[in-house]
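User: My collaborator and I are trying to settle a disagreement about how two of our proteins should look. Neither of us wants to argue from intuition anymore, so we agreed to look at predicted structures for both before our next call. Could you fold the first one, then the second, and keep them clearly separated?

Assistant: That sounds like a sensible way to settle it. I'll keep them separate. The first protein:
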Amino acid sequence: MTAPQVLEGRIARKLNNALTMAFVDGPGEPIGVAVQGGGAEGMGKKVAVLFGFKNGGAGTHRYAPRLGQALRIESREQEPTVLTRDDGTPVGSIHRGDVSSGVDATGREILRWIDDPGGGKTLEAFRLHVQRPDGQQVAQLHLVRTVAGWSLGRDIVDATIWWGHAGRPLPIPFLGTSVQRLVPLTLDEHEMLVASCVDMAIGLRPYSAAMR
């Protein structure tokens, strides 16, 4: 069995108050960075972000990986989240509910998100299992609510992981996401997983019954 790997996405702010989310999976530079409203946002939304009135939420956020193509994550109210490239090419969508499902541009299901059977909501984090359509669990995802949430799930990985040190709480809805990847992921699965992290932590979209 492949040793679990951690992918952390930590929330911070740009000078214009937009939320950012840097993803790291080991020492060195982030593997990619997401930015709130990194898509084509109107002037009203940009002003709301600048003055701190829009603290995450619906909008078109942009994830730029260190390698590969950028991804736009359109977090929408009461509608599926839409994933596209910068030129508008469809990538897929995520259909949220008590069980959420991510599909590619052809409608083929890629991943599902369900509440952790041991409890989907704690003070520290919302806890989800990420599965393939056949039910195989590929990852455990924590949407971190408090500083203590960064330590959840570390019993299944090396407790000395260098980037697992807790930081100070920020005045934002969530501190980020921590994902323990249990098996190697395809490129499509990895991209869908990262998109879901951005959609939850910056887009504030609920992915399970416990999050509603």
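The second protein, kept apart from the first:
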Amino acid sequence: MIWSGPRRATAIATLSSVAIVLALANLIKEGYITWDILRDRKDALNAAASAINILVVLVGAVLSYFRFFRGRTFSTRADLDLSVEVIPLPDNRRLHAITFRVKNVGNTPIWNPRPIIEISLLGPTGSQHFGVINSWSDVLSAPDGPLRVAVLDPGETGTFATRREFDADVWVVTYAASVTCDSGDVWKHVRLVRNAAPNAA
């Protein structure tokens, strides 16, 4: 059985304590440690005890860091929000205005966020893959200009926009969104959108 996380840390601490106790017992049994030796070396033992106390405090601080703060103090985290407005077109089609927002809710910058959306359609003929959105218009740039979001600082939101058209007989459009960045982190978000105007019955 493989232990990980808190179980492994507890097992290591328990086995280390048992090993120390057994080592001391063996030294006492062999005569290396006696009451006379302890009495004669009281000052040295006090110094050693102080050093051990300092070592225990340092080890406790390190273990506390790994238990409570590792992966949180300098973490890369993002919240994704995908909104779609469905607009009826004259030729019995539907225009989907897609807005994808990526907010940095971590403590470190997100370098080169790359949003991608995979689209699937559900209609009378069943489910089918429609395509992938991997090119965007940054709403902070000029229309059809280059994407300028190279980094998202903590608390900053990057907004990406695009549009797609679908036939009116499509029932539901599924948007499976994901964002990757230079650190290798990946965030995902899925949204199902009914292919009808908001005021449709």
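Some points you might bring to the call about the second protein. The helical segments are 6-29, 35-40, 42-69. Confidence is low (pLDDT under 50) at residues 1-5, 138-147.
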